[in-house]
């Protein structure tokens, strides 16, 4: 009887094995065809996933081939997926330390590639690794990380997977309230995405309710899960559901229903050769028949014993596969150690050769030095070198003095332009204050006349007008005061400390100051000349975050770029005629780890031969007396050396120029 049962189970068990073999054969056939290397890496990972439960040694061979190929072609995303699969195979075979090592390597590569999908799946697998070692706290930590990445991707499938595993974790700890909470969340996600495997969440919910003794809810979820298990052919879970139903009916004193579902559990387990569940079903049937039919109970008990013996044999085969797998890994480790040893020997030999060559060179140099006789000539050369050094130092001092004068001139020019802009800004509120003061004086005269005449209503009306005028005087006085405070703030020496700065506000503030300064300078230069006008177009990113910069230094950079842009469009307007519209565009945007400021004009443009020189100190294209050649050089140093950013120029001669400043976000 025992032998017959074993043969039947083995024959039935060939069905899923044949299906798996068919899939692996299909994948191997595709690998024999010409494929892109990246596709081949992903195919090898899929083949490893197909074989990892039945043939872990063969699966690992495919995974290692995929890893070598991914590393050779620099395919980071494929390498991360391969390492994640390798960690799972190590976990299945009980190599927990190497599983942890492979998963952590997968996370390192995935982080470099910013592959959030692999990060979510690998953290979930790390959680499963710690579940198998009953380290519940660490497993929950990694499941939570998987959920964070799933939320960043807004991927309900990954979110559902991590949440379901958290419920399973808490159920194993018999923390049933927490288990129920996460199982319900996983079920809600499955319903939301219309998941095909939602029956797994239903079965988990049923098991939690069963452990809590809430049998009606457990029965309801078991019955909802069973049709889906049948539809998807998940006989492993279906057999378990029937078994759990039978236990619920036993606990609620419904022996007939318990017997019915125990037999169905046995039937499904036998059809799929799930020997462990066959053993459990036989043992449970023996327990159910014991009070009413001892003979039948004994028969089922014998069948359970026979199946258990065959299960032991299956475990021995699995253990043998694990031993074979571990031995293969040990041999590969030994081979890698041997290769590393040979590499070290080669390196030592190379270093030894270099040391010998260096010693020979030192000996030859020493002998050569001893052969030199011209001590007098050498002393003369030293004297000449000393004289040249003195001249160079004198020239350097003169150059530094000249440079300091030019820098001071540049600062004074910038201050003059800034002052002209602020003077234009402050003129408006001062005009308002003067005008309303004069009107208020007239109102006071009228008020006295009306008061003397006894016209109370007119007196009150004039008092109201006077109050309004005084309010406007106060308002514009405060506005002028704020402009003065801003002027003092801009003129204060920079502390060099970086603070969170609203780059949009800074760019908008300085474009206005630069424009009014240009207009004031243009008017002062030639009163009969038409006053300079220019269209300003801004496109500021409303979601731009505050940036850690020295605000006054970046303001100087922006002021310099704006002044150059206005100068360029003014020069072109003198040549282009009436149809030309001078325009300056200013925009900000956020890149991955940078904040970008673009200043573009439709001016004269920069000729290509001199474009590479514009950031050099003292180089200028302006006429003598109009530029020091230090503005762009200082701006470039502030951006690159002071803030770790970049500054680039793009220009088409006759069409315009664009400066692009990138600062770390």
TrEMBL record:
Residues 421-665 form the Histidine kinase domain. Residues 371-409 form a coiled coil. It comes from the Bacteria. One of its GO terms (molecular function) is phosphorelay sensor kinase activity. InterPro entries: HATPase_C_sf (IPR036890), HATPase_dom (IPR003594), His_kinase_dom (IPR005467), HisK_dim/P_dom (IPR003661), HisK_dim/P_sf (IPR036097), Sig_transdc_His_kin-like_C (IPR004358), TPR-like_helical_dom_sf (IPR011990), TPR_rpt (IPR019734). It holds the Pfam family TPR_12. Keywords: Coiled coil, Membrane, Phosphoprotein, Transmembrane, Transmembrane helix. The chain crosses the membrane at residues 345-365. Gene3D superfamilies: 1.10.287.130, Histidine kinase-like ATPase, C-terminal domain (3.30.565.10), Tetratricopeptide repeat domain (1.25.40.10). Its EC number is 2.7.13.3. CDD domains: HisKA. SUPFAM superfamilies: ATPase domain of HSP90 chaperone/DNA topoisomerase II/histidine kinase, Homodimeric domain of signal transducing histidine kinase, TPR-like. It catalyses: ATP + protein L-histidine = ADP + protein N-phospho-L-histidine. This is histidine kinase. It comes from Rudanella paleaurantiibacter.
